[in-house]
Specification:
alpha+beta
């Protein structure tokens, strides 16, 4: 089943800041696109649990924390950061 992926306002700004500072902007853009794609299918199995309905997931060079609303089939990205 497919989920709708949304990004809260704060992580959108965080991602923009990461991209602006990156020397490898293409890698950041590809990772963000892949995260969106992967969260659309079975997000409750990706990454690791990090609280009630929350999980963290890494797709280098990015990592995200997201929340899964199973009944409404919505995934919300809550934060994003750069990983080594």
């Amino acid at each position: 089943m497919i989920f709708t992926v949304t990004w809260a306002a704060a992580p959108v700004q965080m991602l923009a800041d990461i991209w602006n500072r990156a020397t490898d902007r293409t890698a950041v853009a590809i990772a963000a696109d892949e995260i969106d794609r992967e969260l659309r299918v079975n997000p409750d199995t990706l990454g690791r649990p990090s609280g009630d309905n929350r999980r963290t997931y890494r797709h280098a060079p990015l990592a995200v924390e997201f929340e899964v609303d199973e009944p409404n089939r919505i995934v919300t990205v809550l934060t994003v950061w750069r990983i080594a």
